[in-house]
Amino acid sequence: MSQNEFLLPATKAWLERPKKLLIGNRWVDSVSGATLPVTDPATLETLCMVQLASSADVDLAVSAARRALDGVWGETTPAERGRLLWRLADLIDEHADVLRQLESLDVGKPVMETYVFDLPLTSDHFRYFAGWATKITGQSIPSSLPGEALCYTRHEPVGVVAAIVPWNFPLAIAAWKLAPALACGNAVILKPSEITPLTALYLGELILEAGFPSGAVGILPGLGAVAGAALVEHAGVDKVSFTGSTRVGREIMQKAGGNFKRVTLELGGKSPNIILPDADISDAIGGAMTAMFFNQGEACVAGSRLYVPKALKADVLSELSTRAAGIVQGASLDPATQMGPLVSQVQLERVLGFIERGVSAGAQLVTGGSRNFGAGNGYFVQPTIFAASDDLELSREEIFGPVLTVLTYEDIDDLVARANDSVYGLGAGIWTSDVKTGIRLAHRLKAGTVWVNGWGMLEASMPWGGYKQSGIGREMGSYALQHYTEVKSVWVNLL
């Protein structure tokens, strides 16, 4: 299988060009000279070679960011920051066809998903926060102390922000971090995953074309244990914004605590998706399929625990199995593909390991459960559905692959306790014909986002983040701005 028949000439030409680091508005070679192949997970072909940042490159990028804050970028007006962000959004839309293909090639996700989700959400974020750049205001606060004083607050940039993004939504999540940080006047060093760095590098070219001053944005593809660790521990980095696994998030918190860096984290999930007895079952099952198999299940908010009324179990499992069997797997650039491969050999082995242990533990394998060589030589795993109990690993651990666990319930109070019995709290879903019931239940679930009669709706204006071990802080919306400024109180004695 090859994807060449779908490749745009512009995409092919870009892949053939050198892939360097962006430091101080220049594409430079890595100090170490280390490189890594970027692989198409659908075909196992090498797409290109990418240079990897070392700790020495991190030093250079931090120095460039500091100079930007002390110079042109620090003096840029809020209105100009907004214009730059808007211009970047326009450029993303102009280059959307190439960006869509690069994202799909790199991650393995179907190009139709990048068309309807990743690219629109990316440019929307830059436009949304472009509007905020001129609206980040402090307060004038009356003083009750004797005499007369002018008391007010200012919101000032935190400084140098390290934005570390994962491999499952590399472009969209980069936008979630870059847009609010830049709107607030910070300098940002973006570290994409070494597995999926392509759209971040292409975005770097658009950032230069938009006219951002030198050092405002650096882009350092690199290993997490090298470039990521150097950013987290660097004395010149003031804040770390990380999206990824809970395990790595915990390590970042510990390392960043050494010099009290500001930290926001968006981490893992094991999200419950609840079908109530009065729900439209066809709609609910369709929603459950989207919640689990979108992006191959490689989503922190995948609805991987599906709770169904015990009386409906057989019917729901039958319909889920039929729909799962009809999912078309194949090359990510093929418009007919509905589910692509997993991102890497490591992820393939991880997911197959969970499936194997689930069968051994006594879970009922309803459909799937194997590698799908019929879709190609890449890292394809069949859409997999289990019927299981809450105590099994399948029901408690984040798998990050196309593996759905179906659980039954009879009592609503017991259901709420079980749904909340998780170290995670990122998302949840409720399917019901009674909106009042849905709202009441939504208020009882411990999750950062709850969807009623839907799943996965996101937009730039709504906050995103989790309870418990699903993270700290919020991305998106006005809430994100709180994490990218320091609040300064100013007292002026008027006597």
Oligomer designation: single chain
Helix % is 25-40%
> Quick one: overall form?
globular
CATH superfamily of the largest domain: Aldehyde Dehydrogenase, Chain A, domain 1
Tell me the number of helical segments per DSSP (H or I, 4 or more residues long): 17
Describe this protein with a few key phrases.
six-stranded mixed sheet, alpha/beta, 495 residues, globular, Aldehyde Dehydrogenase, Chain A, domain 1, 17 helices, 2 domains, Aldehyde Dehydrogenase, Chain A, domain 2
Please explain how this structure is put together.
The chain has 495 residues and is α/β, with parallel strands linked by helices. Helix content is 40%, strand content 20%. The protein has 17 helices and 21 strands. The strands form 6 sheets. It has a 7-stranded mixed sheet, sandwiched between helices. Helix 2 runs parallel beside helix 9, helix 4 runs antiparallel to helix 6 and helix 4 packs across helix 8.
Topology:
Layout: H1 9-15, E1 21-23, E2 26-28, E3 35-39, E4 46-51, H2 55-70, H3 72-75, H4 78-94, H5 96-107, H6 111-132, E5 149-157, E6 160-164, H7 170-183, E7 187-191, H8 198-210, E8 217-219, H9 224-233, E9 239-243, H10 246-256, E10 262-266, E11 272-275, H11 281-293, E12 305-309, H12 313-325, H13 345-360, E13 364-367, E14 384-387, H14 393-396, E15 403-409, H15 412-420, E16 424-425, E17 427-431, H16 435-444, E18 449-452, E19 467-468, E20 471-472, H17 477-481, E21 485-493
Helix pairs in contact: 2-9, 4-6, 4-8, 5-6, 6-7, 11-12
